[in-house]
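Following up on my earlier thread - several people asked me to post the actual chain instead of describing it. Fair enough. Here it is, all 415 residues.
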Amino acid sequence: MMPGLDDCYSIERLRQRARARLPRPIFDFFDGGAEDERTLRENAEAFAEVRLAPRVLRDVARVDLSGSLLGRPAGMPLAIGPTGAVGFGRRGGDVMLARAAAAAGIPYALSTSATAAIEEIADKAPGRLWFQAYILQDKERLHDLVARAGAAGYEALVITVDLPVGGKRERDLAHGLAFPMKIGPRNFFQFARKPAWSLDMLLRRPPVMPSLAGLNRMASDRKAMRSVAGRNYDPAFDLAALARLRDRWPGKLIVKGVVHGGDVEAIVRLGADALVVSNHGGRQLDGGIATLWALPEVVAAAAGRVPVLLDGGVRRGSDIYKALALGAAGVLTGRATLYGVLAGGEAGAAKALAILRDELARTMQLCGTPALDAIGPDVLRVPSPFPPLSSYSPCLPRAAAAWAASVQAEMLEEN
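Reply from S.P.:
Thanks for posting it. Predicted structure:
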């Protein structure tokens, strides 16, 4: 029997609990990245490179984490981002995540590849709901999904633009993982070692992805060295197609997967309401830039016209703080809350959010910033040497550029 969550005092502890509960192929599906997983690692390592120089003698007896996301109140500067196939790791996990988000007063984004229907989430977990639409080749299906999200009251449509084709996810290939799921000689013993999970899937049958049901080519093709992601998606989707989708959707439009400042202007002009700096959690292009390093360039290009969010590598409340200090309006969690629900269901998802909230509040107190709008780049420091400074200082926001220049000057004086 699994112990309770009392000893899960960090996101990493929830990750370890999830790993202990799940068969290795299933855990690796959620935990892994593309190819050598450099971008997966560097998303987290980028946060570790940035240090904080706290201000002292400030009244931080109380700190206020509340703010707004997309013009509406949020309990903290965070939304639960879209994660696919959650039900394979925890049956009913999509609903559990949505309920945890609603209880915390933050948005929840439902993935196209979720194991819950659009209407089920709206019925069982009413709150601030966003629908993440993958760009399907079957445009009739795509337009139907978008229309259903609008009818169900979803406030925002999240268009993921970094998935023209699926990344090469080698952990999945090594396990022979496919959807619909097949258990064969290569992975039989991995599943047999976790009888509770395996018996549930055997007796109750694996869940389905209702938004993708009936589409062709859902299974992975190991000979072609492709993962299960990216099937049925349209690699020809471009700005003109995004503009047509914007015309169909009356609510807020969030474009997720932007890491280059040169892409921002056109996306903002066609009517996007927010951007997400994202590299798909390191699951697409391996060797791509870490999202924290890409953030200042995108913030500068957006020039305050739309809020810029960030995902990828967020495992601590201090990571949220650092993203806000570099100009993010908030962050999306993927694996952090996913580990929570995989480890302990709805209680585990709530635990993950509570951990991040507590750590963010503690970081704000320790850095002398009692409110979100007091967080800025003046408290950020980096070790010497720091190669990204020379690359990114021209495109940082004004305050961050001044910080970068001062740090570079200090480094020259020391040398």
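The first strand starts at residue 51 and ends at 52. That should answer part of your original question.
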